[in-house]
UniProtKB/TrEMBL annotation:
Keywords: Oxidoreductase. Residues 1-20 are annotated as: Disordered. This is General stress protein 69. It comes from Micrococcus luteus (strain ATCC 4698 / DSM 20030 / JCM 1464 / CCM 169 / CCUG 5858 / IAM 1056 / NBRC 3333 / NCIMB 9278 / NCTC 2665 / VKM Ac-2230). It is an enzyme of class 1 (oxidoreductase). Residues 12-179 form the NADP-dependent oxidoreductase domain. Its EC number is 1.1.1.-. One of its GO terms (molecular function) is oxidoreductase activity. Gene3D superfamilies: NADP-dependent oxidoreductase domain. It comes from the Bacteria. Signal peptide: none annotated.
Length: 179
C-alpha cells in the first residue's frame, strides 16, 4: 500500500501478538522474524501491550544489526495516550526495540484521552525524529470521523485493522501443508 507520503509499505507483515510471553520460545520467535525477513516479509508489527513490552524486546533482538531491513510498527496503549504519556510510552518502546525510530506508531484503539492530545504527541514525536509516521488501530467509522475533526489529523497515515490467522484451530489455518 502507499502511505499519504508516497512511500510504499507491505500490506501484510509479521505480527508479534502473543510473543515475548514465554522465555523458552524466544529463540524460535527471533528465528521466525529472521526467516520472515529473508522471505521478504519486511513489515514487523508489535505493541507495548504485547507481553508488557516483551514482544518489542523480541523484535529488538531480531533486528539487532538489521534495523534498516524492516518497517517497524508499534502501538501506544489508550491508557498511555495523553500528550506526555504517548511520548513517554514511545521512548520506552524505542528502548525495548533497541532503535532510534519507529516507522509507524499507532494509537492501539480509542480511549479516554482526547484525540487532540494524542495527535499533538504524535506530531511532536515526528518532529523529534522518534517516529516517521503515525496512525490509529482498530478505529471504526465513528472514531475515524471524530479523528477527522482534530487539528493535525491530516497527518494520519493509516487505520490498521486486525487480520490474522488465529491459533484457535485448523478451520482458521489457510496453509494446512505447513503443519
Amino acid at each position: 500500500m502507499t502511505l499519504p507520503s508516497g512511500e510504499s509499505i507491505p500490506v501484510l507483515g509479521q505480527g508479534t501478538w502473543g510473543w515475548g510471553e514465554d522465555p523458552g520460545r524466544r529463540g524460535d520467535e527471533v528465528a521466525a522474524l529472521h526467516a520472515g525477513l529473508e522471505l521478504g516479509m519486511t513489515l514487523v508489527d508489535t505493541a507495548e501491550m504485547y507481553a508488557d513490552g516483551g514482544a518489542e524486546e523480541v523484535v529488538g533482538e531480531a533486528l539487532a544489526g538489521r534495523r534498516d531491513e524492516a518497517f517497524v510498527v508499534s502501538k501506544v496503549l489508550p491508557s498511555h495516550a495523553s500528550r506526555s504519556g504517548t511520548i513517554a510510552a514511545c521512548e520506552r518502546s524505542l528502548k525495548r526495540l533497541g532503535t532510534d525510530r519507529i516507522d509507524l506508531y499507532l494509537l492501539h484503539w480509542q480511549g479516554r484521552y482526547p484525540l487532540q492530545d494524542t495527535v499533538a504527541a504524535f506530531h511532536q514525536l515526528v518532529e523529534d525524529g522518534k517516529i516517521r509516521y503515525w496512525g490509529v488501530s482498530n478505529f471504526d467509522h465513528r472514531a475515524l470521523a471524530e479523528l477527522q475533526d482534530v487539528p493535525g489529523s491530516s497527518g494520519l497515515a493509516t487505520d490498521q485493522v486486525l487480520y490474522n490467522l488465529s491459533r484457535r484451530g485448523p478451520e482458521y489455518d489457510l496453509l494446512p501443508w505447513c503443519k
